[in-house]
User: What shape does this take?
Amino acid sequence: MKPPSIRETGSSLQWVHPPRQERSQQTLERLLDAAEVLLEEKGFDEVPVTEIARRAESSVGALYARFVDKDAILHALHERFCREACATADAALEPARWEDASISEIVSECVDFLVRIIREREGLCRTLAARVFDPQIRERVEALGRYVGHKLQQLLLVRRDAITHPNPELACDFAFRQAYLVLDPLVARSGFDPGLLPLRDSEIAVEVTRSFLAYLGVHEPTDRSQA
Assistant: This one.
C-alpha cells in the first residue's frame, strides 16, 4: 500500500523516531534525551554528567558504563539525530507522498519542515555548529547532507520540465546545500548579527523557499511563494 499523499492527508511532515524496545536501550535513550533537553537550557560545557544522570532517573555509574566521557554523549546524540534524519527523509521524500505535487509545493513543505526541526532541536544544532571542525561530526553532517540532498534531488528531477536552470541536477543539489547553510545559522543561532533585521521563522521559510525556487528557475505560482 502506498503512503497517502500530502494532499490526501493535509498534514505536515513528521520527524521519525525508531522504536525503543530493550530495557538497556531504553536506559541509553533516556540518558540521551536528558542530555538533549539540558542542551536547550544551557551550553554543552555547563552541563555536568551528574545532572544528565539525574534528569534521566539513572546513575552516574550507568552513564559511564555507556559513555567514556561527555564528548561521547554528544557524538551519540549526533549519531541518533542522523539515523532519525535518514529515516525521516525516507518517509518524507517517498515519491508516492508527492504524486500530485508541484516543485513549489514540495520545496515549500520541506523548507517549513526543516525550519521547524532546527527550531525544535535548537540546542543540539547550536552545540554541533560550534564543533563543526570535529572530524567525526563533520563527516556525519556531510554524509547526512548527501543522503537527504540526493533523495530530494530525485524527487524534484521527476519534474525537471518545470526547471529552467541549464543544469537541473546541479541546481537541485546546490539549492539544497544553499538552503541548509542559510537555515542553520538563521534559525538555530538567531541570525548572523543581532543588529540585523529580525526575522520570524515563517518569514525565513518564505524567503528561503523563494531563493530555492529562483535558483532552480521554477516559475510555478503558489500562495506560499507569493506570500
Summary: Residues 119 and 178 are 18 Å apart (CA to CA). The chain has two domains: 19-67, 77-220.
